[in-house]
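Write out the bound-state structure for 5'-O-[(L-methionyl)-sulphamoyl]adenosine.
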Amino acid sequence: MPRPFYVTTPIYYVNDVPHIGHAYTTVAGDVLSRWRRLRGDDVVYLTGTDEHGLKIKQAAEAAGITPKELADRNSERFQETWRLLGIKNDVFIRTTEPRHYRAVQEFLQRVYDAGDIELGTYEGLYCVACEAYYSEDELLDGLCCPIHERPVERITEENYFFKLSRYEKRLLDHYEAHPDAVQPETRRNEVIGFIKQGLCDFSMSRTSIDWGVPLPWDPKHVAYVWFDALFNYCTGVGYAEDDERFRRYWPANYHLMGKDILRFHAVYWPAMLMSAGLEPPQHVFAHGWLLVGGEKMSKTRLNQIAPADLVADFGVDGFRYHFMADQRFGPDGDFSYEAMVSRYNADLANNFGNLANRVLNMAVNYCGGVVPDTREDGPLVDAAADAFARLDAAMDQLDFSTGFAAVWELIRATNAYIEDRQPWALNKAGEATKTAAVLGDCLEALRVVALLASPVIPNAAGELWRRLGLAGGPEDERLPEAAAWGRLPAGSPLEKGAPLFPRLEPQ
Ligand code: MSP
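---
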């Protein structure tokens, strides 16, 4: 029975349209899911849209439409973008779906029955863009939100409170017992430091708006948007709908997100789950921000880049590769168009694309257009095994850039091997068997490259697979077996073709 593997992205707010920051997390989740499917796991990959709350209501008012109309319009924009980027999510959840209302209400009732929700009056400073309350000392001068740098609002309401303060010790015990539950480690330290400062109860309902899920025991109140949003991860695998499915996939293996929303996922969320008698997620991974000109992308700063604009220049695979290879998944990183062009040219057009072209051209010309029945089984045998081992280890840490660097090492080793053996010279000297043996190794290395690179560049990998005369696609293979050397069948018809990654001129 394959192991279940459940991975999620945040569900994105529908006041905004997708930009490359959203795409960054979503591509990462897709690469991880595709890798795990190759590894033989039974993967569920969830993404979706977060459609309730004041922020959405205000954005809809500004656009002169209803919140539902805004949500329908922008949720579709996210789905279109994910289709464009080749994202293979198994679930797309919208928080306005009836199944989510049912699940959230059942969950709310459980937390209420557990005695962790109490009525109180709240007066506090609220940032609508974050949909979060702040204490004064967390704010910038002029009572501005530290993330959005604009003034917060003072709000007084009768609210229900979630008794988060009761969970300090249980959360600390949980993180002590599961040292890798929050990753990377710097983020874990932040979370533990935050819990140790003492946790305050937080207001989990609103009466000032009606755009949300009504509390089952007091329907004048709707659930605070984060309370409803976080629960999407449970709705998405069948909570209150399909118990067997829920039990199979919960707790999630990974929640991926940007560091901006780590606290919600690593403090509020596990406590909410504990209250309802559910297990906390196994891992929460918070990556850094993609910065543009040194700043976080945001609607207010007008520095957002649409994924489709970059796809027009670099293609889907060029887009995906850049964000996974260019910087480590963890720290912040600056996006630059120039850096994207040079990495594309170096890694994809030159190293990968040229290698595929050269090898296929020579094999078609010197070996009668089919995979030769002989190999040298030279230095590439170890290089291929090494690439797989290093990629595998890196993917366990979600260290995508190190993992794919190992695959590109195999590409470089294959290029170096060609320079060393000079199959064109062997062919000219009439050494047919030696020529075939050298090219046999190169073709085999290309097969391994296509297989291992397929999670990040699925289209080019699939095309290379086809040109190598292989049936199906890399995604039909299973690791580790498929990474073993020597599985390319002799006699398969080879095909030359147009460059997989045409070179781009720097602008
Ligand atoms: N709706 C909430 C999440 C609820 S999850 C239960 C939300 N939505 S959001 O639309 O603002 O998306 C935030 C997420 O988008 C970040 O956590 C991150 O995954 C991604 N990113 C948005 N901007 C980003 C960057 N500039 N850089 C990297 N990731 C970014 O918060």
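---
The mean pLDDT is 96.
The longest strand covers residues 117-127.
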